[in-house]
Amino acid sequence: MKWFVVRESETDERYGKCPEDRGLNELLRFGVVNLDKPPGPTSHEVVAWVKNLLGLSKAGHGGTLEPCNGAG
């Protein structure tokens, strides 16, 4: 199998663009907020806080937001 790497190329904006070229609204709409949830509040509460802080009508979480207990 051969790999071809294109070092520089133009991307048609109909098919996407570099993250650094996206505005805040696009980043929030299509992005991910990575956070380290502290012990105490529930995952549901944290999602509600994020929605409120960022003025979003929809938000969710993937997986658990519970802190690691050190067992691994």
UniProtKB/TrEMBL annotation:
Biological process annotations from GO: box H/ACA sno(s)RNA 3'-end processing; mRNA pseudouridine synthesis; rRNA pseudouridine synthesis; snRNA pseudouridine synthesis
UniProt cross-references to Pfam families, sorted A to Z: DKCLD
Gene3D superfamilies: Pseudouridine synthase, PUA domain
InterPro entries for this protein: Dyskerin-like (IPR012960), PsdUridine_synth_cat_dom_sf (IPR020103), PUA_sf (IPR036974), tRNA_PsdUridine_synth_B_fam (IPR004802)
TM stretches of this protein: none
Molecular function terms from GO: pseudouridine synthase activity; RNA binding
PANTHER family xref list: CENTROMERE/MICROTUBULE BINDING PROTEIN CBF5, H_ACA RIBONUCLEOPROTEIN COMPLEX SUBUNIT DKC1
Protein name: tRNA pseudouridine synthase A
